[in-house]
Amino acid sequence: MLYRLLCDKAENSPDKVAIAGERRAVTFRQLLDETTSVARFLQDDLKLKAEEPLVIGVPGSPEFFALCYAAAAIGATAIPVSPSGKVPARIKELGGAVAVGQRDFLRTVEAAGIALKGAIVWDRAKGLHIPERSTPLRRRRLVRKEMVFAAPSSGTTGEPTLSFRSAELLTHSRGISPTGHEVASDDVMLCTRLFSPSTGLWPLIRGGKLVVREKFGRFALAEAVTKERVTVLYSNPFFLDLLASIPADDPADFSSLRLCISGGAPLPRAVFDRFYQRFGIRILQVYAGTQISPAISYSRPGSVPEAAGHVSGRFPMAVVDEKGRVLKPGKVGEIVVEVNRVKEKFFRSFLRQNPHCRGRYLYSGDLGKVDTEGNLYVVGRKGHWIKVGGFRVAPAEVEDVLRSHPKVREAVVFPLNPGGLKELVGALVVPADEITREELFRHCAERLEWFKCPQKIEFRETLPRNAAGKVIPYLFSSSRRPPEGSGP
User: Fold this and answer.
1) What is the pLDDT of residues 193-221, one digit of tens each?
2) How far, in Å, CA of 296 to CA of 140, rounded?
3) Are 220 and 263 in contact (CB under 8 A)?
C-alpha cells in the first residue's frame, strides 16, 4: 500500500523533489528507483522475508526513506534506531534480521546478540553499498496486514521498546491531521522526528517535499529552514528552544514558515514564549505515544500554549483516577482515550485490540489534567510521581515553574532518596544567566505548594539526552546519592 502510493507519486510528479538531504536531493522518480533497487536486493540476495526486521542505523537522508519504503514493498519490518543509540532487545525475538549502517553500527548490532542474515554498509561518500539491478521487483501480493514499521520508544526509562504499525494502519493514518495542522502537496517540511512514521512520512504520502539532516544543531537547522524555504517545521521542545536561542543578528530567515508543531514531550510555556519572541510564530502541540497509537491529540490554533489538544478531538480523551472515574478540571490523573467515542470504525477496532485497552478506555500511562474549557495538559508519566510524605508530585509541573524563570534555560526534576520514607524533590538546572539557588528556591516557593518545591538544586552546563532530544531522567532517579546544593 505504501509502495503503491510512492509509485503513484512517481508517475504523477516524477520530477518533483521528494527529499532534500545534506548531500543530495532526490525526485519522486529517483526515490522510487532507489527503493525498488533496495527491495530487490533485500528480497533476492539477502532473502529478507515478510515481517523479518530491517534494522536501519542510517541518519536522516534519502537512503533512510528508500530503506523504509523498500521494507514496505516486500512486507519486512523497518526498525529505525539511532546510529549511536541503543538497539532494542526486542529485535532478538523477531528472527533473522538485516542491518544497515556504518561499520561501527553493524558491529554494535552484532555485539547486542542479534542474529543477522545479512548486512548493508552505508557511508556518507557512497550511500548504500548494494549492486545495481535491472530485474523487476517480484512482489508476492499487496502488502496490507504485515507490520512494515516498528517505531522505537525514546528509551527514557532505560530500554527502548517497539510499537508495530501495519501498512494498512500507516496508510489510514495519513489523514489524521486536523484543521490547522495539514501538510499539503506544496508544503516543504523539515522534521527532526523521523523515527515516528506518522510524522516523517506525512509530506511524502501527500506529495510534499521533505527536508532532512543527518545531524541536528541549531545553526544547521536554521540554515536548512532558510535555504529550503521550509513552510512546516515539526520538532520537539528541545530543538525548538535551541532555535529560539539563535542570536538576533544571525541571518536565519524563518519568513517562509507557516506552521510549527512540537511533539515528543510537553511544551513548556517558556519555550513557547522564547520562540514567539524570536520568530513571531506560535508553536502548536501534538500529543501521541507508542502506547496509544494511532490515537493523537492536537492543540488548536489560538489555544492555550501549554495545551496539547482538546478532549473532544478526533480521538476523544479524558483524565481519570485509579478507579476509572473522570476527574474534575485541574485534578491530575491518567490520560485515557475513550475508545467507544472514536467515530472511524477502522481506528475504533484497532484501538480495542491494544493490550492497554480495558473496558471503555485505552490507558496511556501518561499523567495529565483538563481545564474548564476542555483543554488537555500533559504532566508526565504515571510511574514518575515523586511521593513527598502523603503527597504526589508530578516532576513536569515543577520543571515548568523552574523554566519560567528568565535566567533558566533548562531544568529536570527527579526524586531524592527514591523509594524511601523521606523522598523529596530534587532538580538539575542549566542557567541562561547568572543566578543563585536562593533565587530559584524563592521563585518556586511563590508559585508552588510547599511539598512540590525542590529541596536540593544543582547547576549543570548541559543535561544528558537521548537521540530524540529527551532528557534521560533515570540517570538521576536511579541514584540514591542526592546532588550537591541544599535548600533553605
Assistant:
1) 766 645 555 556 677 899 998 887 889 89
2) 33
3) no
